Amino acid sequence: MLSSVLSPLVPVVLCIALGFAIARIGWVRASAIADLSNIVFLVLTPALLFRTMGQTRVQELDFTPVALYFATAMLVFAATLLREGWSVAGAARALAHTFGNTVMIGVPFIGLVYGEQGLVALFTLISLHSLVLLTAATLVFELVQARAEQGQPGAVARSRGQTLWRAARNSVLHPVPLPILAGLVFAQTGLPLPGVLDQALALLGRAVGPTALLLVGVSLAYTRIGQNWRAALRIAAVKLLAMPLFLGALAWALGLSGGAIAVMLVTAALPVGANVLLFTQRYGAMQDEVSSAIAISTALALLTLPVMLALAQLLRG
């Protein structure tokens, strides 16, 4: 069992370590990270997402595991707000506790461990991941700001409905959910992809795993943790351990099992996603702490993921 848990993790570790090494010796500069990220997020990942979901019928999808994931995430989100208070810092930490790196690490890792069926379960989650979590965090941020602006002279009244609609729209019109939804719509037509296009998408899709993992290593090489390591470590502990353990306990209590449930548990154990940093930068709060949390959780995930994989094996039934 140990070899079955560790074997898919070895290529992940090697790719991340190689990316770290080539950055350290200067083959890839920090200024190139944004361009490499654009290749992964805007070209390679949409090709993989569209091709995979373009062969999947909606009636074949099981939304029970996704519902379990979001129930867990929203409970952790709410618990964080209760502990931290209704504030910008509380919203940022709540999002960091629940928003994982489902694309750059999740896609190659789940693909290695669970194959095509695992990816379908993951993509079903990803299609709603940003929409649900980023919209919830946006609403909290906007409500906090609206409360802070009350009573200030010259303050402009904002429509919370418009704010929520804009957040939901931007979460869908995004290079990750959009090709998933487009692929599902295409699949319902029953038409096959033209052979040349299918081969091109397959070629691009196969490049997602190694390129994304190399980029994780490069990013780690240029990340400075600094004085925020204690707070970042607390965030990492919640994201890597508390959230997946809570999901596993909830699945056990509800009598849920199977491959898709196992995928949800492993996905819940992924490190903090980069979108959390982009989100905090947008609102000008908690950037240093979140940046450190992304780096620390990514590094520690190499130690915690084998444990969560073993736990997930118990849920496969």
From TrEMBL:
Q: Which controlled-vocabulary keywords does the entry list?
A: Cell membrane, Membrane, Transmembrane, Transmembrane helix, Transport
Subcellular location(s) of the protein: Cell membrane
Membrane topology type, per the record? Multi-pass membrane protein
Spell out the GO cellular component terms annotated for this protein, sorted alphabetically and separated by semicolons.
plasma membrane
Q: Name one Pfam family in it.
A: Mem_trans
Q: Does the record carry Lyase as a key word?
A: no
Q: Which InterPro entries match?
A: Mem_transp_PIN-like, Na+/solute_symporter_sf
So where does this one cross the membrane? 6-25, 32-51, 63-82, 94-114, 120-141, 203-223, 235-254, 260-280, 292-315
Q: Name one GO biological process term.
A: transmembrane transport
UniProt similarity note? Belongs to the auxin efflux carrier (TC 2.A.69) family.
What protein name does the entry list? Transporter
